[in-house]
């Protein structure tokens, strides 16, 4: 297939010249194009790293904000009826353990 215009073909005939068509572009053929691609790749890489960092920070912030919101809206009662008695028993057993009155094998 010939994609040249008729005018261009006629001009070539009048000037008695031959039109040279170059081969299609290949990345490895041109040093200037290689350098451009390398520079472009570095710029995009830096941009993507920054974007990833921003997204990661934003996700952490969102998770923290959601946890705080959940904690504010869902108040949990710390102690139920009778918990004070259990806490006192546990604390008193720990006192005896620290004093060495019970060995490790005894059941408290």
Low-confidence stretches: none
- The number of E-state strands comes to 0
- The global form is rod-shaped
Structural class comes to mainly alpha
Rg is 40 Å
- What is the overall number of helices? 3
Biggest sheet layout: none
Q: Ends: how far apart? A: 96 Å
Oligomer: single chain
Determine the fraction of residues in helical runs and give it as a percent range. Answer: 55-70%
Mean pLDDT: 75
The arrangement of helices and strands along the chain is HHH
Briefly, what is this?
With 108 residues, the protein is mainly alpha-helical. 65% of the residues lie in helices and 0% in strands.
Task: Provide a descriptive summary of the structure in words.
There is one protein chain. By secondary structure, the protein is an all-alpha fold. The chain has a domain at 30-75. Helices cover 65% and strands 0% of the residues. It is built from three helices and no strands. The chain has helices spanning 6-15, 31-73, 83-99. The longest helix has 43 residues, at 31-73. It is rod-shaped. The N and C termini lie far apart (96 Å). InterPro entries: RNaseH-like_sf, RNaseH_sf. It comes from Heterorhabditis bacteriophora (Entomopathogenic nematode worm). GO terms for molecular function: nucleic acid binding. This is Transposase.
